[in-house]
Amino acid sequence: MMSINEVQEDIVASFAELEDWMDKYQLLIDMGNDLKPLDEQYKKPQYLIEGCQSRVWLYARYEKESGLVFYEAESDTVIVKGLVCLLLKVLSGRTPDEILNADLFFIERIGLKEHLSPTRSNGLLSMIKQIRSYAQVFKLQA
């Protein structure tokens, strides 16, 4: 299995091939469209991430045997779905410690920081915070 940093390098390489930001947004949208739909039972208020302008549901489960955390998520907007997809690609299927200690450099390196609206940037930070808080809870259960 690839390390968190290898997955991030892969993502950076995919975006580096595209020069135009419209193409990069399209890649983000395509990734979002590939995201497996979230089971309806998790589209409830308790799974909604606060601080996102769009609606984003995040479900996490911890597999004690493997010690890994798996995330599933969905959003009602295509760009945010793409962002969610990137985060899950990097962080799902990892140990709580890996998730908590990950330096998510891909966000900066693909230029998302300066190309997302302030509300989307805040939403992205809220998603990361929620992903990490699940990992923190699972770490305590390990």
Low-confidence stretches: none
The residue-averaged pLDDT reads 95
Largest sheet: 2 strands, antiparallel
Count of beta strands: 2
The helix/strand series, from N terminus to C terminus, equals HHEEHHHHH
Instruction: Tell me the fraction of residues in β-strands, as a range.
Output: 5-15%
The radius of gyration is 15 Å
Domains (count) = 1
Q: Outline, from the CA principal axes?
A: globular
Helix content: 55-70%
Give the helix tally.
Answer: 7
The CATH architecture assignment turns out to be: Alpha-Beta Complex
Across the major sheet, the strand order is 1-2
- Kindly provide the name of the CATH class: Alpha Beta
First-to-last CA distance: 22 Å
CATH topology value: Sufe protein. Chain: A
Question: What's the gist of this structure?
Answer:
This protein has 142 residues and is mainly alpha-helical.
List the helices and strands and how they pair.
Elements: H1 4-16, H2 21-34, E1 56-63, E2 68-75, H3 78-91, H4 96-101, H5 106-109, H6 112-115, H7 118-141
Antiparallel strand pairs: 1-2
Helix pairs in contact: 1-3, 2-3, 3-7
Written account of the structure:
The protein has 142 residues and is mainly α. The protein has a single domain (4-141), classed as Sufe protein. Chain: A (Alpha-Beta Complex). 56% of the residues lie in helices and 11% in strands. It is built from 7 helices and 2 strands; from the N terminus they run H-H-E-E-H-H-H-H-H. It has helices at 4-16, 21-34, 78-91, 96-101, 106-109, 112-115, 118-141; strands at residues 56-63, 68-75. The protein has a two-stranded antiparallel sheet. A hairpin with a 4-residue loop joins strand 1 (56-63) and strand 2. Helix 2 (21-34) crosses helix 3 and helix 3 packs parallel to helix 7. The chain starts with a helix and ends with a helix. The model has no long low-confidence stretch (mean pLDDT 95).
